[in-house]
Amino acid sequence: MNAAPSEGALARVSWSVLAEPGDSVAGELVGRLGAAEALVLVERAMHTGPDELVERLGGGVSFADGPDRVRVEVERGLDRWRPRLQGTGVEAGTATAVAAGAAVGARLVVPGERGWPIALDDLGPHAPFVLWSRSELDDPVGSAGCVAALAVVGCRANTVAGAEAAAEITSIAADVGIEIVSGGAYGIDAVAHRVAVAAGTPTTAVLAGGVDQFYPAGNTDLLRNVLGRGRVLSESPPGTRPTRWRFLSRNRLIAALSGATVVVEAAARSGALNTAHHALHLGRPVFAVPGAFTSAASVGCHRLIADGNAQIVVGPSDPVTALLADTSVPGDATGPSPESGTVVLATGADPHVQRALDALDRRPLPVEEIARRSGLSVDDAMDALALAQLEGLAVPLADGWCRR
Fold first, then answer.
1. Where are the domains of the chain?
2. What is the 3-class SS of 253-275, one letter each residue?
3. Does the domain at residues 107-340 carry the CATH identifier 3.40.50.80?
4. What is the spatial distance between Cα 344 and Cα 250, in angstroms, rounded to a whole number?
5. Which of 19, 27, 189, 361 has its CA 20 to 30 A from that of 244?
6. Quick one: fold of 351-403?
7. Dihedral over alpha carbons 27, 31, 32, 33 (to 10 degrees)
8. Per-residue confidence at 359, pLDDT binned at 50, 70, 90?
9. How far, in Å, CA of 24 to CA of 61, rounded?
């Protein structure tokens, strides 16, 4: 763990406790006002209303196209954050996160400091407030002189052919000093990290939960090996459990950290497609490996190619050749700006419903607790639970809500 966090860094940790990843209203407030001042104003607005926040934000924000909409979205933001601001939730959560990070030797990295990946700044107001980094190296990427970074992603239930393709692409990238970025999951992610470690090239695993609890548990040994060749990163505070919502949101970091993304295998609704769509929104090139048309693991790749959203990988060196030929760096990538639209989160289900379902437990929970866990307002949590009930996914009981 680095030295005791500054006041500004602690304020950013507080924001990571308060708001869910990718919250553009929170991102605009922190970006325009600074983390500490924005936090004070939000706490004040809980009692006095949103007027001061709306005035201080001004115009030209990414999440609204006019003064009236700015006010509406700020009010919604306050409703989302209220359940976590009540009592000493954020203050205690900040202290717990810092202590948990220190316990596993994690380094807290904030924008502008050594170790902050400037490519993440392309996410604009959707960029993470902080990063928690674990590594056995002093400078896990910079000291190795990596020429670029390549995201290698795919489905968890990969085929043998998919594993071979991922291994070949990763090996060729490692040979020319390209960093490998992936999500630390089973399947294609694990193959990419394993080959990178064996080849001695830096690799970054981006987690959906805290860096103090490796997930999935079956990849604990692999992630420990990653620490010796690169780093494990997360924007979520230590102690945070991974949920489907956070996996989807985490994918924007994988895309942003990389100069290009390769989807090796992806089913029709694979999370790897979500990573590819984030890369497209950032103007990063996307590649997809074709497979047998009878293979369910290749449906997503074929759709990316057919829709013109990905370049076909004819040979394993194609992504590396294209990445090295591109003289731009991730921070200079052209294409749609993240400020011009919302972050891609899911390919199907309503994201509020997904967040509410992620928050449910085996025991009944009151709506207020579900709102606090999910980062939704109480009203939005109630609406999401009602939709989940209609879909047969949740059931109201006398003591609260449960999964069906």
1. 7-99, 107-340, 351-403
2. HHHHHCCEEEECCCCCCCHHHHH
3. no
4. 11
5. 27
6. Arc Repressor Mutant, subunit A (1.10.10)
7. 90
8. confident
9. 9
> When comparing pLDDT for 140 and 104, which is higher?
104
One DSSP character per residue, 195-240 reads: HHHHHT--EEEE-SS-TTS-SSGGGHHHHHHHHHHSEEEESSPTTP
Contact 251, 182 (CB under 8 A): no
Instruction: Give rounded-to-5 percent helix, strand, coil for the chain.
Output: 50, 10, 35
The pTM assigned to this predicted structure is 0.84
Task: Give the C-alpha separation, 219 to 234, whole Å.
Answer: 16
What are the pLDDT digits (tens) for 364-390? 888 888 888 888 888 888 878 877 877
- The rounded radius of gyration (Å) of the Cα atoms in the chain is 21
Whether 150 contacts 319, CB under 8 Å: yes
H helical segments located in 34-182: 35-48, 51-57, 67-85, 89-103, 160-175
Residue 252's Cα: distance from chain center in Å? 5
171 touches 198 (CB < 8 A): no
Q: Which regions of 306-361 does DSSP assign to beta strands (E)?
A: 311-312
Per-residue pLDDT band at 394 (split at 50, 70, 90): confident
- The C-alpha atoms of residue 147 and residue 127 are separated, in whole angstroms, by 23
Looking at residue 369, its amino acid is E
Q: What b/e readout covers 307-318, taking b as 16+ CB neighbours within 10 angstroms?
A: eebbbebeebbb
State the amino acid at position 207 in one-letter form. L
Close Cβ partners of 225 (under 8 Å, ≥ 6 residues apart): 193, 194, 197
